[in-house]
Amino acid sequence: MKITAQEEYGLRCILQLAREQGNLDAGGAMQVRDIAEREGLSVAYVEKILWTLGRSGIVESVRGPKGGYRLTRPSEEISIGEVMRVLGGMPSQEEICSQFTGNQETCVHHDGCGLRPVWVSITDFVHSVFDKIPITTLLRQGIDIQYVRLDGVGRHRPAPVPGD
Amino acid sequence: MKITAQEEYGLRCILQLAREQGNLDAGGAMQVRDIAEREGLSVAYVEKILWTLGRSGIVESVRGPKGGYRLTRPSEEISIGEVMRVLGGMPSQEEICSQFTGNQETCVHHDGCGLRPVWVSITDFVHSVFDKIPITTLLRQGIDIQYVRLDGVGRHRPAPVPGD
DNA sequence: GCTAATCCTGACAAGTTTGTCAGGTTCGGA
DNA sequence: TCCGAACCTGACAAACTTGTCAGGATTAGC
Hints:
Two copies of one chain form a homodimer.
Chain A: H1 5-20, H2 32-39, H3 43-55, E1 59-62, E2 68-71, H4 80-86, H5 93-96, H6 118-130, H7 136-140
Antiparallel strand pairs in A: 1-2
Helix pairs in contact in A: 1-2, 1-3, 2-3
The structure holds a DNA duplex.
């Protein structure tokens, strides 16, 4: 399970915008050059990444001199899962079933898990977790496992929930 | 975030071994050819994957005629995270910090999250989740999100748990 | 101790991802 | 109105991943 370079850098760029969001005037934007400099990336590469993010509506551009990029929504409302999906790392359900079927035309898991490849199980799961985590979590602390209750994972019957 | 082909196929091979585990005599093993056939993969490729798994002690080989592969431990004791790490998709902590630093020599996150790239936060998190899920979960049902209680992820204070 | 079945392993071609380049388009301000 | 700062975008070389190939090493059974 790998984070692609685009995901890493895309998230970093988004985090730069999130940090700056409070400092900007209404209508203000952050320049690609500044982001590139702070992250140690080339301007061309940051442009490419921001273009991808822009196409899907997470960030928007302001053209012309004094232009740049900014988030379209408050950073608290953007989830890690959303950003990762946009950056191409997380394939959608439809794409999944056409991959990883080996040499045969149809999925070969005759019994047990039916047609679902392992892929789907794991990706589904990761999706549902990261869709619930806002990017601001990464600004503060990384993702703290202590806030995820893992009781019952991998068992058939949910373990009793200790009175919270 | 991508599952690599090796992870997908490696997990499938392990699951084949796990399914067969009960049917085998003590000392018995499953042949590469059978696994390859059931998964629709080439024998050569399955050999390569099993060799990787063998090197790290998750499976072991029996050479000669009637040889093959088998798990070294009961399948309930093998976690998805362990298998994924072995198959090369999940880099260890040490490897992580030497990657993804952009064009500069040192990590450029001056403030906020210190030296940790986004990479580390997310990978740490995924590790700690998958290390708790045995591979047998994939045999039964995929990973059922309903058994993972996500309340509070990404918030500072855990949300109340609704009565089960 | 042969033989054949089976695992073992390094080298390599094809495909994908990564990051750069070069040239375009838009638009605020002198 | 024109200039230059800044975003926009397709094409491409380098690096990595994937899956195959060919030949080698081990050992059960005769």
